From TrEMBL:
Name used for this protein in its record: ABC transporter domain-containing protein
Keyword flag Transport: yes
Classification of source organism: Bacteria, Pseudomonadati, Pseudomonadota, Alphaproteobacteria, Rhodobacterales
UniProt keyword list: ATP-binding, Cell membrane, Membrane, Nucleotide-binding, Translocase, Transport
Pfam families listed in its UniProt record: ABC_tran (PF00005)
Domain of life: Bacteria
GO MF terms, alphabetically ordered: ABC-type phosphonate transporter activity; ATP binding; ATP hydrolysis activity
ABC transporter domain span: 2-246
GO cellular component labels: membrane
Amino acid sequence: MLELHDLTKTYKTGDTALGGVSFTVPKGQIVGLIGPSGAGKSTLIRCINRLVEPTAGRISLGGHDLTGLGLRELRAQRRRIGMIFQEYALVERLSVMENVLSGRLGYVGFWTSFARRFPPADIQRAYRLLDRVGLIEHADKRADALSGGQRQRVGIARALAQEPDLLLVDEPTASLDPKTSRQIMRLLVEICTESGLPAIVNIHDVPLAQQFMQRIIGLRAGRVVFDGTPAQLTESALTEIYGSEDWTAMRKDHEDDQEAEADALRRLSALPA
């Protein structure tokens, strides 16, 4: 379980990115984090694993307080937190397999990782994960030879290689087309559901969040202004989070994309074998 208590981040300029954020994420729950640009979504995710140092408040994961840890203890706790980035953060010149195995760097010694001599159990786990994300046949390809959706799948497998207790996902579909975005979100949800893995997904696409997330938290100006189910995310709630917008038109565009994808699949299935 992840618990945030009055998490605050104020920069030296005096700007407040987070103003007393509190919520709990139980085991197995998938939370979508939405809000306008500058609302504090990415800052919140990075405060949880202390890539950004919070100014005040407390972060607890599985009963362990993360906010007061020294560097060595923090390094050990970070192994429990998988991170999936918007821009993939892969080592382009390395193979897909090597990128997935980099998720084990927190568990093996420096020279073992430097020589790329990972234990057989780690290699077997990496193959299983690549199979799960649909990339087993690309294991020996360089990362820079993959499409955007394939790179994001490698990022998912790498995060899962850590065997984390929490998954943090920062705008996983921002660089992807609508069809690939739904495929990636569906894969994330399936994997988290299978393993009971809690996740916080910073997502800019509101209809996508409503389609796939179990719970949605809306931030505005660094504060939580909505916390509920996708069904409770009404137009008035969206206006509270984002301000005035034509939400009906936005949902219609999303439904049109879904229908176009379904129609393409129907046409494909009707082709002769």
